[in-house]
Predict the structure.
Amino acid sequence: MDTRIDLHAHSTASDGTLSPAQLMAAAADAGLDVVAITDHDTTAGWAAAAEARPPGLTLVRGAELSCRWSGADRPISLHLLAYLFDPAAPDLVATLAEVRSARAVRAERMVALLRADGYDVSWADVLGYAAGGTVGRPHVAQALIAAGLVPSTAAAFAPEWLGRRYRVPKTEIDVFEAVRLIRSAGGVTVFAHPRATRRGRIVPDELIVSLAAAGLFGLEADHTDHTPEERAHVRALADSLDLAVTGSSDFHGTHKTVALGAELTAPAVYERLVAATSGVTTALG
Ligand code: AMP
Ligand code: FE
Ligand code: FE
Ligand code: ZN
């Protein structure tokens, strides 16, 4: 049987709806051999995931970092997946703590904007939905759904709601700084859904060329937010820069419709990824 490797999944440590332990069980149920836990800006789910890892499932501990590139006329937001880095590296710990606390302030502002327009959502409820994890717009979306204002998370991301009207920008890590922080913590970085035009503005290929020179490990080509043309473009770019190509589900539980294992990474790429890390954090298998 083929090895099934999914390197991008969220838990309740950020905006997924399964706890880290439930995520491990779901990964086994989905027939995965390798799964990565990649919560937004946190490693808080690592211990519980490791604890619950069923025999036969390899766990790659990671995170998805909220990053920014300031080289365009307006800064562009982007996500870097980071794998097998030292979760105690002081600079990284401090940076992630800053990003998370800014996210809470920002979500509270979004709630205040909604309330100012007369919508009955509360910050306490949003914090409750985040359940101690990294707060994000999906948690504000839950409050909108509970208030009967929108029917689904996807609807809450429409421009008239959290997509634009009530969106408040978040504090993000300079993308080159993020690559540097993860490299010096012994890990590797993969640019998540780099070509997903449906998610917003995308960065030019020239940035990816510079990131490759700065030590970026790979590009996520196979992602549900990429069209076949976008996947092909990412693949060709990765080949030309000798970057690895990954494919992953970006599973978020019921916050999104994609299933675990919907997109996969090739075993040879996974092996190359592990080999490129320092070994300070190993894959558990
Ligand atoms: P934030 O990082 O707080 O700005 O929230 C962004 C998160 O919302 C992403 O990581 C996704 O999990 C989720 N998201 C973004 N767009 C959508 C959408 N159209 N439908 C559902 N979830 C979305
Ligand atoms: Fe998310
Ligand atoms: Fe992402
Ligand atoms: Zn993600």
The two ends are 18 Å apart (CA to CA). Residues 106-163 form a domain with the DNA polymerase; domain 1 fold (CATH 1.10.150.650). The chain is about 40% helix and 15% strand. The mean pLDDT is 97.
